[in-house]
Amino acid sequence: MPNRNRTRGLTATAAAFSLALLAAACSNQATSGSTAKATDGALPGSCTKGKPVLGVALPNTVNPYYVAMRQSFIDNGAKNGFDVKVAIANDSDSTQLSQINSFVQQGVCAVALNAVNSGPGAASVAALNQAKIPVFSVNVIISPDDLKTQNASIVQYVGADQTEGGKAMGEQLLKDKGATAKIQAGIVGDPDQIPTNQRDAGFKAALKPNTSAKVGPTVNSKVDPNVSLQVTTDMLQGNPGINVIFADTGPGTVGALQAISQLGKTGKVTLYGFCAADTALTATYKACAAQEPADYARIVVENVKKYVGGSKVPAQVLQPLKIFTKGTPGPGEVG
Question: For residue 110, what are the contacts with CB-CB under 8 A and spacing of at least 6?
């Protein structure tokens, strides 16, 4: 994303994905179940140095989400005795793979990978596997199908419980408008990615009890506020009956809010979404779900330390989201 501020992955249902992720995360490891142990395989020699290098691969630092995550990796890495090297891919899959290969050449102890995209991210995992460098994925889910194709595996995935975040927004919508209210909703999303599709699935599932609720078009914001403004404008102009928008990323929320205002739809269309940075809830922007990227980075760092020290770590860590219905989410509480 030169301006594509992402929180991304590929399509899959929440239930099917959960099973597939656990299988992929545990494949090619000597342990069974939902934990992995460092002593089951060789670790890079650099892990035994006084201050091992932890490589961190991030998509961009345009999105406030990744700004918070980057700083947390640096701060928590230092607290846990790591020399943290951060690589920013500027939203390019090829650049990120090149940066991963650089980590391999440097002989880093472990890598925390927030892939630019889920599918191409599997190639980065495979390159690290070949060098016997353990991979901890964060925020962006690496496609289980692509991991299988690459015969690759991660040690652990850390991120938000995406489906529950979308579900919470749908439930709040019904609470605000009524269990039988007539709802025609449009989604400002990213249909090519796993986490955003999980959010959408949770939102749709929450609305199912209301037979008067319909979820119509989904437009691709590409996790960019400028793109979101354009596609939301087009969606609202082409579907004048829409009275609710669900935006499944923070940048998508920013653009959707602008579109509602510019089209004079304030009071006619309400927005539920994942939290936009530094944006207060209003009568139009009714509720949002916030991730905590700094906390995800902390968890990754602490589990890398455990893993390279010979302890078991869970294959998946899903964190609850914070739900806001008033006020302004704090720094680092973003979608």
Answer: 47, 52, 54, 55, 133, 134, 135, 136, 304, 307, 308
For residues 21 and 87, membership in a common domain is answered with yes
Burial 302-330 (b: 16+ CB within 10 A, else e): ebbbbbbeeebbbbbbbeebbbbeeeebe
Residue 271 to residue 261: CA distance in whole angstroms: 11
- 40 closest CA partner among 56, 58, 26: 26
- Same domain assignment for residues 32 and 44: yes
| Co-location of 123 and 79 in the same domain | yes
Give the CATH number for residue 79: 3.40.50.2300
Residue 60 counted as domain residue: yes
Same domain, 113 and 125: yes
Give the HSE-up count for residue 311: Cα atoms under 13 Å, Cβ half-sphere. Answer: 8
Residue 8 forms part of a structural domain: no
Read off φ and ψ for residue 182, nearest 5 degrees.
-80, 120
Structural domain for 69, as ranges: 14-159+293-319
Q: Is 15 helix (H, G, I), strand (E, B) or coil?
A: helix
Q: Is the residue at 2 inside a domain?
A: no
The pLDDT tens digits of the residues spanning 20-79 come to: 443 433 333 333 334 544 334 689 999 998 899 999 999 999 888 999 999 999 999 999
Strand partners, 88: 58
Tell me the C-alpha to C-alpha distance, in Å, between residue 194 and each of 53, 136, 248, 257. 30, 17, 12, 24
Q: What is the pLDDT of residue 42?
A: 83
286 and 307 assigned to the same domain: no
What is residue 208's DSSP assignment?
A: T
CA distance 161 to 168: 11
Q: Are residues 223 and 170 in the same domain?
A: yes
Question: What pLDDT, in 10s, does the model give residues 222-246?
Answer: 889 999 999 999 999 999 999 999 9
Amino acid found at 72: S
